[in-house]
Amino acid sequence: MAKVTIDGHTVEVPDGTTILNAARLVGGETVPPAMCYYSSLKGSGGKCRTCLVEVSKGSEKDPRPMPKLVASCSTPVMDGMEVKNKTSPRVLDARKGVVEFLLINHPLDCPICDQAGECHLQDLAFEHGKSATRYEFKRREFEKIDIGPYIQLHMTRCILCYRCVYTADQLTNGRVHGVMKRGDAAEISTFIEKAIDNDFSGNVIDVCPVGALTDRTFRFKSRVWYTKPMDAHRDCDKCCGKAVLWMVGNEVYRVTARKDQFGEVKEFICNTCRFDKKEASDWTIEGPRMIDRHSVISANKYFEPEPEHTPLLNKA
Ligand code: SF4
Ligand code: FES
């Protein structure tokens, strides 16, 4: 076991635990943001740098501080380590820089993006971003692509976190999409225009931290904060059958897997539950879902309009 102190809170964790996971045990403001790490996906993390922290004391044996900020999602704790997250001006400054980089090519289209209200980049920019950009060059441009009947890819919004690639690799039998090309030409794409089509493909929508992969069956139906999340389950022979129904009145607008307070899915669901079971009678409804994550949808100010009064968005 190793004792680690993060922002003044000491926790004891098994050897090999990362700083990020130790901070998650402390909870609250001590937890660094994470845009690419996903605890249930092996190999994830180390791509986005939003989780940078300062190690002000390396360990009990070697108390020297680490000279550079480190990615907390991929740095294991040492016994006696002291870490600063929110309490380090260096970290806060670096995080501002990371957000600025992530937003260089990301369009500011939150008003028409289906992910708005539950987008991790939107929350990150709200907390750490600047109101202006210094970037003067041409931004990357892509056409929207329908990859299969259920998923649409907006490559302009992608932050290349690789979560969807790991999801497809680890959850499905054959991955047909990935990151093509390198550097600023890198893009998520299917292999020679193939459709993403297998029983668990819909999970790439849930793991995408931004609005790059969206649910075509929900697009422009409602803003997420107008819908009411309800825990529900059904007997399913392919997956756990435990989901969240996003409802307006008695209508099911979309079905997603359940996410924890870090915005992560622990039990993935199949496409039948996600896309084919859109009637309330298909499910046993357990009750309203508590959204732990600090975001617009957790403000708990649901407004329940009649379906015909739900604001529809222009298909811009
Ligand atoms: S499409 Fe989404 S999940 Fe996939 S790499 Fe881009 S941002 Fe990450
Ligand atoms: S969450 Fe650690 S580098 Fe992305």
Low-confidence stretches: 303-316
User: What percent of residues are in strands?
Assistant: 15-25%
- Which architecture of the largest domain does the CATH hierarchy give at level 2? 2-Layer Sandwich
Total domains: 3
Helix coverage percent of residues? 10-25%
The biggest beta sheet reads:
5 strands, mixed
Ligand set:
iron/sulfur cluster, FE2/S2 (inorganic) cluster
Keyword list:
316 residues; alpha+beta; Ubiquitin-like (UB roll); Alpha-Beta Plaits; 3 domains; five-stranded mixed beta sheet; 14 strands; globular; disordered C terminus; binds iron/sulfur cluster; binds FE2/S2 (inorganic) cluster
Quick rundown:
With 316 residues, the protein is α+β, with helices and mostly antiparallel strands.
What's the helix and strand layout?
Layout (H helix, E strand, L loop, with lengths): L1 E5 L2 E5 L5 H8 L25 E6 L12 E2 L9 E4 L4 H14 L17 H9 L16 E2 L4 E3 L9 H9 L5 E4 L6 E4 L12 H5 L5 E3 L12 E6 L8 E7 L2 E6 L14 H6 L7 E5 L28
Parallel strand pairs: 1-5
Antiparallel strand pairs: 1-2, 3-4, 3-5, 6-7, 7-10, 8-9, 11-12, 11-14, 12-13
The chain binds iron/sulfur cluster and FE2/S2 (inorganic) cluster (FES).
What does this structure look like?
This protein is of the alpha+beta class and 316 residues long. The protein has six helices and 14 strands. It has helices spanning 19-26, 89-102, 120-128, 163-171, 203-207, 271-276, and strands spanning 2-6, 9-13, 52-57, 70-71, 81-84, 145-146, 151-153, 177-180, 187-190, 213-215, 228-233, 242-248, 251-256, 284-288. A hairpin with a 2-residue loop joins strand 12 and strand 13. It is globular.
